[in-house]
Design goal:
single chain, Immunoglobulin-like, eight-stranded antiparallel sheet, 18% helix, 28% strand, globular, binds 2-acetamido-2-deoxy-beta-D-glucopyranose, glycosidase, glycoprotein, Glyco_hydro_31_AS
């Protein structure tokens, strides 16, 4: 394949910009490093290289390794099955072929199998013949294999055992070149070191987690990332909280997603020609999905791993938290001052401060008296309360005697009795250290642990009367402070699990078990070495089940710091302990987009940053950005560098800052019906909620690398300011459909790469032509906004012959009952604006494909605003066949507004716009007067004030 040159020229306002050119090489020859234990660009030298029977290339300027593993040592010795939909073979190791690490035994024979699991998915496994090696248990993740609808229906085909590959996979639309190949060269399968190079013929790789990626599209200059759950801030290059060995690769109409279903420690190295996997255990179990667009690929993956939870409506509201509320008075003051400024604010949190000596299920009686009434007060104001729970259970009985009124920490003893804790090899309970000091760790992979966990959550809820609305589970990587870097004297036993033959150099820390528990410890699902990255996942599953049982009528909501593939069915994710630093704003967008691809549409970073002090400007810009995180929460650390951090809740800032933050959040609240509808599709179809421009405009090559902007669904584009002292930003508005300013309704004249005004009080939001967005007059809580009138923002797309077109939908239910969709207790509306070719009349219809819910607030559509309307003509409007005289037009903005409507939710409606015969007066005096008013409003001091 010839190198491809993507040169994008976008002329705009005198700007002429050329995007970087990107060259691609043919798939098939991944340069596999023969010395992965050395750091990038570290040269082993010719002698050591040749001792390992590798090829010495010498040091290279492109980061490629100097010593290459070019041999392949397993041959396909016998084929046991070979049909269109299934291929199985035995691989045999050549006599003289060994992995690089003598401590790890090479397997002589392997089972290799390929299976068509659906029309657009295949599964490839390479495992031991006997099938005794560890695999991710079915209880943790069960990917359905319905098989293809017929053997020819697959969008892919494969060829096994070619000269250089074990397997070549082709997307049928691109028959000339395999999109991916499992290369023979470099393949190693030993007990604790499996290496496979995947040749790729596609350019843009997005995904792998959890890390802090500084760019959305991966750098393929031999960059390595490790995947192993770990308690570390999302600021450096290492592995952090979750494990998502999944990437998508897109290029010129090709869209492929590849999951390696494996919970052991993994390292991936991204090279210009493909990806090298190095896996520390288990088996190779790849799932490959292909689709015709990024969004259909995302939906395919979501269906495979399980659709995400439907969040309660209130959880889309703004949320406040900090670590370091010293007593309940302080929390009450924060609640009171944020209510007093009229902040949209639905949820308050309690971090570990509320606990007695940071022990789960206890309340600090001295500093937090009356917590139960505080929670009741939140509820009476339509607000909600979450508490944090850590997995680690205090085991220090001497401390319990000192600090607990009963002198006994019952949850600990109950867990001992039931045998729920992770055990050492000799069956003693494994101890570590977390916030309360010495602790033990529940094994959430054991079903007995569910009953124990539920008992104590329930005790907290009923007996201690803390009526929490959800759970926030933290430190579940799992984190333990026993083996922190500054405690080298604390060591886990010297065995092959704690000291594996190969530790990826991209790991943070030197010791494999750093900041967690020892690797030989025993869980129901297996050895910690194998199940480590499933700890948060299993805790999420049991916490979900706990809430299901605690309030069966309601949707469970659990936030988990550590997640695995498929955790989105049980838990939501926040992006962890970020820093109050400007680059973190940008990085949060990237991780938010990735977690949408991983099946966690409900996610977001701590607004204004967790560690360190936020500055005023940063906190304002971050609140504007965070108003568009699906999970929108301001959270702060207790202290940094030994000093208490300043408060950063909106009310802690000056009046101007408060106003700007409130404006951004009121805008969010206004469009919650749109956001909620996106979540409905995420829950039922696996749709993404937040999307990159490249995801939504896959054929627009200029959009490929943009990661400073994002969309809500297909229709709303958010272009935040991410650095200080900016009054304008450079943004990309894809020219394909055209855009309107979300605040003024003005049509954007220039698309492509543009400069947008961005004074401090403004975050740019644009609405894509062709879409209809439902909204609701906002209020300070969702409980009260759900009583308000509904509206539609119709962003018309102008087609030839003055035809208009736009579509949209609204999902509505009570916002909190469990599974209203399957219980058929919801309303679905579809909206469509179109033009009748013969009469030239425009028609806006509100259809009701389903109505199984009666809203108690008698909601009505009261306001319909159409952008892109031909206001130079004189329109006669009829609503459900009745003449409607109250029409307002703004000719400058080509906007038509129908307010004082009263169209009940749940019923179908139709609005017709007909041009009056020529000669009729253009507009009534009323309309003219209102236009004048509108123009002043939009040209006045705050030109964006029309928003809310
Ligand atoms: C697989 O391919 C190799 C090399 O191309 C060949 O030597 C071997 O016999 C093949 N195996 C089978 C079972 O056909
Ligand atoms: C993008 O281009 C491909 C052909 O390369 C076409 O099949 C597809 O429909 C296009 N997608 C969009 C969203 O225009
Ligand atoms: C709560 O904590 C604050 C800050 O330490 C302190 O000033 C205040 O006196 C405390 N109030 C109560 C009731 O303990
Ligand atoms: C573990 O034991 C092996 C074999 O006795 C020894 O070579 C190695 O240095 C030990 N490692 C540690 C970290 O103690
Ligand atoms: C209807 O919505 C538009 C903006 O979409 C706004 O300008 C107007 O004031 C609203 N009318 C009412 C009565 O709320």
């Amino acid at each position: 394949m010839k190198p491809r040159l993507n040169v994008v020229l976008v002329a705009s306002a005198g700007l002429l910009l050329a995007a970087a050119s990107i060259c691609v090489q043919r798939a098939g020859a991944v340069k596999t490093n023969c010395f992965p234990e050395l750091k990038q660009n570290e040269d082993p030298g010719r002698e050591r290289c040749e001792q390992r029977k590798c090829e010495y290339e010498g040091q290279q300027s492109d980061n490629s390794p100097s010593c290459l593993w070019t041999r392949g040592g397993y041959i396909v010795s016998s084929v046991t099955e070979n049909t269109n939909t299934q291929y199985s073979a035995v691989l045999t190791r050549q006599q003289d072929y060994n992995g690089p690490f003598p401590g790890s035994r090479d397997l002589d024979e392997l089972r290799f199998s390929v299976k068509a699991i659906s029309d657009n998915g295949l599964r490839i496994t390479i495992s031991d013949l006997g099938g005794v090696r560890y695999q991710v248990p079915k209880e943790a993740l069960n990917i359905p294999e319905p098989g293809p609808t017929n053997p020819d229906a697959t969008v892919y085909r494969w060829e096994a055992n070619t000269s250089s590959s074990l397997l070549d996979v082709y997307q049928k639309t691109h028959p000339d070149q395999a999109i991916m190949s499992l290369l023979k060269a470099g393949f190693v399968f030993s007990d604790q070191f499996i290496q496979l190079s995947l040749g790729l013929d596609c350019q843009n790789i997005v995904g792998f987690g959890e890390h802090n990626h500084e760019r959305l599209v991966h750098d393929r200059r031999y960059k390595r990332w490790s995947i192993f759950t770990r308690d570390a801030s999302p600021t450096g290059p290492g592995n952090i909280y979750g494990a998502h060995p999944y990437f998508v690769c897109t290029d010129a109409g090709k869209h492929m997603g590849v999951l390696l279903k494996n919970s052991n420690a993994i390292e991936v190295e991204l090279t210009p020609d493909g990806i090298v996997y190095r896996v520390l255990g288990g088996i190779l179990d790849f799932y490959v999905f292909m689709a015709s667009s990024p969004e259909s690929l995302a939906q395919t993956y979501s269906a495979a791993i399980g659709h995400p939870l439907m969040p309660p409506y209130w959880s889309l509201g703004f949320q406040l938290c900090r670590w370091g509320y010293r007593n309940i008075t302080e929390v009450q003051n924060v609640i009171a001052r944020n209510r007093a400024i009229g902040l949209p604010y639905d949820v308050q949190y309690g971090d570990i401060d509320y606990m007695q000596n940071t022990m789960d299920f206890t309340i600090d009686a001295t500093n937090y008296p009356g917590l139960s009434s505080m929670v009741d007060d939140l509820h009476s104001h339509g607000q909600k309360y979450f508490v944090i729970l850590d997995p680690a259970i205090s085991s220090d009985v001497e401390m319990h005697k000192q600090v607990l009124p009963s002198q006994r920490y019952e949850p600990y003893h109950d867990g001992l009795t039931r045998g729920v804790y992770v055990k050492n090899l000799d069956d003693t309970v494994h101890e570590g250290e977390v916030w309360p000091g010495r602790t033990v760790f529940p094994d959430y992979t054991l079903s007995a642990t569910q009953a124990w966990w539920e008992r104590w959550v329930s005790d907290f809820y009923y007996n201690q009367s803390i009526r929490v609305d959800g759970l926030w589970i933290d430190m579940n990587e799992p984190a333990s402070f026993t083996y922190e870097p500054h405690k080298p004297q604390n060591v886990c036993p010297n065995n092959t699990w704690n000291y594996p033959p190969y530790i990826p150099t991209s790991f943070i820390g030197d010791r494999f078990y750093e900041k967690t528990i020892c690797m030989e410890t025993k869980h129901n699902w297996g050895r910690h070495y194998d199940v480590h990255s499933l700890y948060g996942h299993s805790m999420g599953m049991q916490s979900y089940q706990t809430l299901r049982n605690l309030f069966p009528e309601k949707r469970p909501i659990v936030f988990s710091r550590s997640t695995f593939v498929g955790s989105g069915r049980y838990a939501q994710h926040w992006l962890g302990d970020n820093h109050s630093r400007w680059p973190d704003l940008h990085w949060s967008i990237i991780t938010m987009l990735e977690f949408n691809l991983f099946g966690f549409p409900y996610n977001g970073a701590d607004i204004c940053g967790f560690v360190y002090d936020a500055t005023r400007e940063m906190c304002i810009r971050w609140t504007q950005l965070g108003a568009f995180y699906p999970f929108s929460r301001n959270h702060n650390i207790k202290e940094a560098d030994g000093v208490r951090t300043r408060d950063q809740d909106p009310a802690s800032w000056d009046a101007e800052a408060q106003k700007i933050m409130k404006d951004a959040l009121f805008f969010r609240y206004k469009y919650l019906p749109y956001l909620y509808t996106l979540f409905h599709y995420a829950h039922t179809n696996g749709a993404t909620v937040v999307r990159s421009l490249a995801h939504e405009f896959p054929n627009d090559t200029a959009a490929v690398r943009i990661d400073e902007q994002f969309l809500w669904g297909s229709a709303m584009l958010i272009s935040p300011v991410l650095s200080p002292a900016k009054l304008s930003i450079r943004a990309y508005l894809p020219p394909e459909d055209g855009w309107y300013d979300a605040y003024t309704g003005e049509e954007v004249q220039e698309t492509g790469l543009v400069m947008l005004d961005a004074p401090l009080e403004h975050i740019n939001v644009h609405i894509r032509k062709g879409f209809i967005l439902p909204w609701q007059t906002p209020s300070t809580t969702t409980v009260s906004s759900r009583n308000n009138g509904l509206g539609l923002l119709v962003a018309a797309k102008q087609l030839p012959n003055s035809n208009l077109k736009a579509t949209g939908s609204l999902f509505w239910d009570d916002g909190e009952s469990f599974e209203t969709y399957t219980a058929k207790k919801f309303i679905l509306h579809e909206f469509e604006l179109s033009t009748d070719e013969t009469s030239g009349n425009h028609v806006l219809v509100i259809r009701t494909p389903f109505n199984g819910y009666k809203d108690p607030n008698s909601l009505k559509f009261e306001n319909i605003t159409i952008l892109g309307f031909d206001t130079s003509k004189d329109w006669s409007v009829s609503v459900n066949s009745e003449q409607h005289s109250e029409i307002r037009v703004n000719p400058n903005r080509k906007t038509l507004i129908l307010d004082s409507l009263s169209l009940p939710l749940g019923q179908s409606h139709s609005i017709t716009f007909a041009v009056r015969s020529a000669g009729t007066a253009l507009a009534s005096a009323v309309a003219v007067a209102i236009c004048a008013l509108l123009s002043t409003a939009v040209t006045g001091n705050n030109r964006w004030s029309l928003a809310i």
